[in-house]
Every structure is written in structure tokens, then in C-alpha cells.
User: What shape does this take?
Amino acid sequence: MNVTDPIGDMLTRIRNANQALKTEAVMPSSRLKVEISRVLKQNGYIADFYVDKSEGKPVLKVQLKIVGKERAIVDLQRASKPGLRRYVRGKDIPRVLGGMGISIVTTSKGVMAGHEAKKLGIGGEVLAYVW
Assistant: This one.
């Protein structure tokens, strides 16, 4: 299967697993997906993630987080799409739900949460919003 938007596919797999009350989302791995997972874990949206290389091609396994009876992730939304890239300056990084969520931004210093990029004053491509 050829996917034109691997990041959108990743977010959809996490969203679907989350809504189906699964404990894990499985997807093909890439460095960008691992970095996005790292940001999600740092901000408390997922429990853990790891790359499984046992069956040939590397597979990223994301452990979803449950807080009480609620899921940590309410929703994920793709911001920048292959057909319409969304770039912002450091001071223009959007707040998600008035600071209740995070934006994931890829910058020249790597992938990070929007509030970190804003603190450093560096902009980049807004990949997704998570709340």
C-alpha cells in the first residue's frame, strides 16, 4: 500500500486505535514518526512507544495512555497537508484550545511542541494539533 501522507496515516491510526479503546497503535516506522511519538510522550499524551525490528521492516508501536476511564488523547488533527503546507514564524505558533492542547512543529532544531518552539523563537512547519 502506497501512502501519500505518512504523518496523516500515523495520526489516523492513533485516532482509530484510541476510539476503538485499543491499548496500542501499530504503523510503519520512520524517523519523523518516532520524533512525533517522542513529543507526544514528553507531553503526556501517550504512555510509551518503541520500534520493533523483529519482522524485517521496522514497525512503530505506540502505547496509548488511559487516565482513569478517559483517554489522554481526545483528538488529533493534521495541520499541514502535502497539498497545502503550513509554515509559521516563531511568534505566530498557534495555541491549541487556549493552551489545553499542543501543536507539533518541525523546526530547524528538530521536532518539538509548539510552546517549546515559541519559547526558542523558532518557527517551522506545523504538523499537527493534539488535545
The chain has a mean pLDDT of 91. The first strand starts at residue 24 and ends at 28. The two ends are 29 Å apart (CA to CA). The longest helix spans residues 6-19.
